[in-house]
Design a protein that fits this description.
Blueprint: H1 2-12, H2 31-63, H3 75-89, H4 95-117, H5 124-148, H6 151-161, H7 173-187, H8 189-195, H9 199-204, H10 209-231, H11 237-249, H12 253-277, H13 286-304
Helix pairs in contact: 1-2, 1-12, 2-10, 2-11, 2-12, 3-4, 3-5, 3-6, 3-10, 4-5, 4-10, 7-10, 11-12, 11-13, 12-13
Length: 305
């Protein structure tokens, strides 16, 4: 119900106020604004928020660290380097091609991290250390690209690095992979419950921890890759939403998984609506508002946990 309410609000508010009774009127002067500008952006926010929140839940389970978020894998750096290089070289690519380049950059970073962290089995401690080191390496490349870019290019890059949904079009790959990931995780929700209590406990309970850890790693990397390639680096969604959902729904993954999808979608849609309306007609990066909301929420959650 909250998600439906936020969708209606996002459709109606902005630099141009759209009366609710004209939402489905093809003869309305607002028809193009709704169906070509606002609705695609709403779909993006819902998909990216759901992907990041679910990826955050999984990575926290994998590395057993409450401060872990999807960007711990370093895959965001792979997408950032590739897409910023496209911007700085001045290539004129469609949004779908730009998404494809960023997605490939993320997958290459993921394969590198998997190669470094897989020694017969997934090593969560190695993932944490290697992911942080790779993130610093990609950050150095990003700094080099920013230092050598022109003024106008830097503005575009900074918007992308802080999270920007202004121009990206919905991508058919996102809902398909999100649905497949959702079904796989719900099928293994009992194994995820046991794994959250530690690998040794899960092994003694009959869980194939190697297979489950590898599945978690692959799904987390794919969800994060899609989100970053589509909307840039958006912080705090994957960090605070899993903690918030645990307070709301407990620790069973059959409840955590669908709740993370819904709450993550609501959170990012609300933040993106604020980003395009607070200083309308100027549009701000959505990452500013996820941080402004996320910091006090995380501090409050930390007092409650």
């Amino acid at each position: 119900m909250l998600l439906l309410f936020l969708v209606i609000v996002a459709l109606s508010v902005g630099s141009v106020h759209v009366p609710l009774n004209t939402l489905f009127d093809s003869d309305s002067p607002y028809f193009d604004i709704i169906w070509q500008l606002r609705l695609p952006r709403i779909i993006n926010a819902v998909m990216v928020g759901a992907c990041l929140a679910l990826a955050g839940l999984l990575i926290q389970n994998l590395v057993k660290n409450p401060l872990a978020d999807p960007y711990l894998l370093g895959v965001s750096g792979g997408a950032a380097v590739v897409q910023l290089m496209v911007i700085v070289t001045g290539l004129s690519l469609s949004q779908h091609l730009l998404f494809a380049f960023g997605f490939m950059g993320s997958l290459l970073a993921t394969l590198l991290l998997l190669k470094l962290s897989y020694h017969g089995r997934i090593r969560p401690d190695k993932i944490t250390l290697n992911g942080v080191v790779l993130a610093f390496g990609f950050a150095a490349f990003i700094s080099f690209i920013l230092a050598t870019a022109s003024g106008q290019q830097i503005k575009s890059m900074m918007f992308w690095l802080m999270g920007d949904m202004s121009f990206a079009q919905p991508n058919a790959l996102m809902p398909v992979l999100l649905l497949i990931s959702f079904v796989l995780l719900m099928k293994n929700h009992r194994a995820l419950d046991l794994l959250a209590r530690g690998d040794l406990f899960a092994q003694k309970s009959g869980v194939n921890t190697h297979r489950i850890n590898l599945m978690i790693f692959i799904i987390t990397a794919l969800l994060t890759s899609m989100a970053v390639a589509q909307a840039g680096t958006i912080g705090f969604v994957g960090l605070i939403i899993p903690h918030l959902v645990r307070m709301m729904a407990g620790y069973l993954h059959r409840q955590l998984i669908p709740m993370c999808v819904l709450v993550g979608a609501c959170f990012l849609l609300a933040a993106d609506t604020l980003a395009r309306t607070v200083m309308s007609p100027i549009q701000l990066p959505v990452g500013i508002f996820t941080a402004l909301i996320g910091v006090p929420v995380f501090l409050w959650l930390n007092r409650k946990i």
